Amino acid sequence: MATAPCSSVLPAPQLGYPADPRAREAQDNSSASSQSCSMASCPSVPSRHGAVKAEDTFKTSPFHLDLWFYFTLQNWVLDFGRPIAMIILPLEWFPLNKPSAGDYFHMAYNVITPFLLLKLIERSPKTLPRSMVYVSIITFVMGASIHLVGDSVNHRLIFSGYQHHLSVRENPIIRNLKPETLIDSFELLYYYDEYLGHSMWYIPFFLILFIYFTGCFTPVAEQSRMPVAAVLLMGPSSLYYWYLVTEGQIFILYIFTFFAMMALVMHQKRKGLVLDSNGLFLFYSFIIALLLIAGWVGWLWNDKILRKKYPGVIYIPEPWAFYTLHMSNLHAARESF
């Protein structure tokens, strides 16, 4: 037998509505009881875009040692280690017209890193904006893939005498190319590697970290402390962020992300909320990395050759430019003895 929808209300004169006052009262009470029971039994339907629930504010999560450890380890091995693997491993194993070992490292990085970022978002005690997270992940993978191609060719040029501390047109193996339009092609390749690829790679990367950071607050002051494992892991994590900012030339993006994190901490403190262990780990890693960047810049402040390649107010030399300028000559001198 069909039932009328909850929104319909029958007036008194309608068919089936008893005329006796006592019968009407009993029927009204029965209808109200059944409606409340049906509403109680129906589960709440979440928003399509992951609206924040009321109880999320009071949830906290323990320190994600497994995810932060894997995240730091794969950053060092697959990102920092890929150019080292390309240089150390014999050239006969990876010919110049084939992908290098570093390229395979980069491919693994492009798969593992977004997976770990998604796992971090899943473990957040708050329901975060999923649509923004998904778009950021897609853009991240696309930017990292663009960088994979440009960076592969640029690092393979080292075996032909390419010097990273010089601009494209100033490199000895590039400036004498004929026709000169080939130089424009190499500059386009450099643009895809150092500008477009880095922008589409690092902007969503830091955006995802900041979105995760917004859920790392708790009203319980006792939970605002890091375990010993987090303190030990903070060193290599900070050092990697130093490498990421200097080699990727993304200091402006990094400092804006840090300022946004600091402003959020101050805003939440007024509400009586403090960072949990995961938020402290990320925030302190950014602070230590900022100190390492300042030390790096101060150490190379008077380097005239690097100053020429990095003109302007923001002077942050790339580690690999420093290597090709100073360390490669030192290694060549040692091999000659």
TrEMBL record:
GO cellular component: endoplasmic reticulum; membrane
Xref: Pfam families: CLN6 (PF15156)
Annotated spans, Disordered: 1-39
One GO BP annotation of this record: lysosome organization
Membrane-spanning intervals of the chain: 104-121, 133-150, 201-221, 250-267, 279-301
InterPro entries assigned: CLN6
Keywords, ordered alphabetically: Membrane, Transmembrane, Transmembrane helix
Amino acid composition bias (Low complexity), ranges on this chain: 30-39
Protein name: CLN6 transmembrane ER protein
Species assigned in the record: Corvus moneduloides
